[in-house]
Task: structure prediction
Amino acid sequence: MPYTILIVDDDPLILKSLKRSMRKEKFNILCANSAKEALEILENKQIDPVITDHDMPGTRGVDLLIEVKKLYPETIRFMLTGKATLEVALDAINKGAITRFFTKPCNSIELAVAIRQALQQKDLLEKSKLLLNATRRQSYLLEKLEKHLPGITCVKRDNTGAILLDEENDEDIEKFLTELGGELVRVEKQMQAFEEKAFWGVKK
Result:
């Protein structure tokens, strides 16, 4: 599944230009001409990064990013504006927690590279969280088994190196191994999904 990018700008020519400049990238690109329309899209679509202009009628870009941060904290945020001031930049960084700040006219290659880097960093963080949760879950299962069957987590082996199991506890052990195996399969599937998304969503 490709990554979905949302570009927000009240100038249709800018939207068309940015969309055209990134057509070689394996992105699904959506466009909005206002903050209101952008929030409607975000409510119904999984958006990976949002790129917004600042000077728009109604809600300003920085205020949109502040709202995105509050409602969708995992969404990557970029600011793209033709009227860059220190105040706008500071608000975008400190309040909107943006990843990058770009000025118009923007170098499309530089923007694409920044998007790919941000997506890769996000994927790495998500994988780390996934592995941490899996480790915690497995530790919990081991503690649970040890509490139920003291000493069971101390592995015993015969002279060939094979693991020796207490036949009296076969049923409990089998149940535990099934649960642990299911957890490992679940983690493996999630990791595989991340890899497939990275392959189709970001050009290496």
